[in-house]
Amino acid sequence: MIPVIDLAAARSGSAADRLRIGQQIDRICREIGFFSITGHGVPLALMDGLRDTAKTFFAQPLAVKQRAIHPVQGTPRGYIALGVEALAYGNGATTPPDLKEYYHFGRQHWPDQPYYTSAEGQRYFLPNLWPEHPPGFAAAAAAYYAAMEALTQDLMRIAALGLGIDEYFFDDKIDRHITAMRLNHYPEQAMPPAPGQLRAGTHTDYGLLTILNGEDVPGGLQVQTRAGAWLDVPTQPENFVINIGDLLMRWTNDRWVSNPHRVVNPPAEAARSRRLSIAFFHHPNYDALIECIAPPGEARYAPVLSGAYRDEKYRQTRLASAQAQPEEPPAC
Ligand code: OGA
Ligand code: NI
Questions:
Q1: What per-residue confidence (pLDDT) applies to 84?
Q2: Rounded to a whole number, what is the distance in angstroms from the first to the last CA of the chain?
Q3: Does the C-beta of 248 come closer than 6 Å to ligand 1?
Q4: What are phi and psi of 163, to 5 degrees?
Q5: How many angstroms is it from 253 CA to the middle of ligand 1?
Q6: Is the CB of 263 under 6 A from ligand 1?
């Protein structure tokens, strides 16, 4: 079973409540690294609004969706069609492409300061690309993004309490975060998948916390336990599923686990079922140095820069055919 945490007491409660919930998260993240939250305070209308808008976009003919492909190939913005990504490559496996299409976007506005506008900043702060239709896509995405920013800031403070470090330790490493979001659409499967082909191949996420809002339909999310078994992860549309990414695993020196997960195909009798998920991949400031918080001498990983780590993962998971391009693509 995937644990469920009610965040209400931590959001409005005393220091003791925050510490208790932080410690609960600590226990879960040492074991499975996946939990779902209730009492998060995010209005359901915000989730439903973005989900409905995304469904309207993906329901359009391919030729219409293709107009939202970024003109510079490999740029992580706009529409990404089926066949372009295989997430399992990021964890060293070779599989057919994932059976999904997605819409990639990030922050909508940022200050006119060198951190954002310098040559390096521009590699992570890329203008979003929005289609003409459906109207309101950009607004629904920006509202959702803002709600996730507030939630992750608080969650990282509660996480710090659970790790036994200063509550505000992460604040100045995430205050100019480079989080990207994806709207994943797993279409109906008119043809049986190829051997080894999944909606999303086995992978770990790259950042700190992934916050996922999904729907419970056939062909959903599964996480691997430390013993190797696959567990179904319920993804009710009113809750969020949270999992730990690689950078938080490295930062905590493996105390918390970034667990392999995947999205399986629906059974043959439900092959026509589609699934939409909304993923917020919370990622620190690009110049944050992820250096283990364990006592000196115990580090299992060399320090790594937040932005460079993600650049490499994006490069690995973009399939070879899509990589055949002359110029170096932007990095986030
Ligand atoms: C992902 C992912 C799960 C889902 O996009 O990294 O794991 O349920 N998605 O869509
Ligand atoms: Ni994932």
A1: 83
A2: 34
A3: no
A4: -85, -5
A5: 24
A6: yes
